[in-house]
Amino acid sequence: MSAPILPGATIGILGSGQLGRMLAQSARRMGYRVHTLSPGADTPTGQIADHEVIADYDDLSAIEAFARAVDVVTFEFENVAFAATECAAQYAPVRPGGRVLHTTQNRLREKQALSDAGIPTAPYRAVHQADELAAAVAAIGTPAVLKTAGFGYDGKGQTRIEADTDLAQAWASIGGGPAVLEGFVDFAAELSVVAARGLDGQMSDFGVIENRHAQHILDVSIADMPLEPAQIALARSIAQAVMAHLDVVGVLCIEFFLTQQGELMVNELAPRPHNSGHLTIEACPSSQFDQQLRAVCGLPLGATQRQAPVAMVNLLGEHWQEHTPNWPAALDDPQVNLHLYGKAEPRNGRKMGHITAFGQDREDAARRALAARSALSNG
Ligand code: AMP
After folding, report:
1. Ligand 1 atom closest to Cα of 182?
2. Same domain? 306 vs 291
3. Between the CA of residue 118 and those of 121, 241, 265, what are the distances in Å?
4. Over the stretch 111-164, which tens digit does the pLDDT of each residue have?
5. Atom 11 (ligand 1): residue with closest C-alpha?
6. Which of 22, 44, 191, 368 could cross-link 341 (Cys pair, CB 3.0–4.6 Å)?
7. DSSP letter assigned to residue 95
8. DSSP alpha helix (H) spans, the chain
9. Can you give the residue range of the structural domain that contains 20?
10. Which of 142, 257, 267, 275 is the best mutation target for the ligand 1 pocket, counting ligand atoms within 8 Å of the beta carbon and taking the most?
């Protein structure tokens, strides 16, 4: 096994959003230097990094120069081209490997990998072109969800199909194929497991996190979902199986549906720290970002047990609409912590920050986090 990458070395992050920012914060705290590459300037990650490279992800000479200047390359953004990770890998280790990215950045490849590993998903069919859609709808039934195979997130590039949906219109609305048609899951709840796997295969996770979405975007996450012990064990073992199957080094998030019958189905994978794991920053000895850093540097993983009931709510651009958010009002509850990502422009649906709150129990934590968010609009 290769030697660990020690504090003082430089972490290269492809992508420059809030996930890279929080990874950079962990890295700086542990004495690493950080470089980031993306097409943007003064980015959430760049504000924390030692060095911000402004280049397109397909500018392979920029990727080469970037990789030559760092000790390990990781990514915080899934849609980095596979060619960029292949190029970077010639000059520095890329963790997780580009193959993991290649699999998870396309829903069809991801579903195939899950099926190969024997892991349950919603029933699905591949739809490569418009004239295949009707047969796929006949096979899956309605309601169903049509999703682009690549470059979709937070519900973008997907549309619901009912018995009377105009299929040509639905196809056009997602921008054409290749796509995947999934059976609509009438889920009782959504949950995630954020897990880490070290260079030596050591694995660890943060338990089961309950996720509540609004408009297809994560709204509230609450740690330690009270499921049956067997369901918790199954969700965690699926996370381990997926990480081992894909040979992940780093953090991987698995999002699940819990069906009305109590079954778990994997919705999607993200080979990086995840929005639902932000609460680990305050709640766990080693956060998801600390684990990512330790894993990609070949260091032992840290402890992940939660210290107190905790919940997180996202802050989207709409909270800035009326006036500057009332930060003192939100922080009036001493159990509340505020994270802002340094984004200048508060657009609708844009993740600008999040609030984490501790409570007496999980619902109290969620209530405090939501109350703090509501207090932002107190005039
Ligand atoms: P995704 O981008 O695939 O994670 O989808 C975003 C959200 O859309 C999910 O968190 C669900 O709330 C909803 N969704 C996606 N796929 C399905 C499905 N097959 N059945 C029901 N809801 C879905």
Report:
1. 19
2. yes
3. 9, 9, 11
4. 999 999 899 999 999 999 999 999 999 999 999 999 999 875 556 689 999 999
5. 216
6. 44
7. S
8. 18-29, 60-68, 82-88, 98-104, 107-116, 133-140, 167-173, 229-246, 280-283, 288-296, 327-330, 362-375
9. 10-94
10. 267
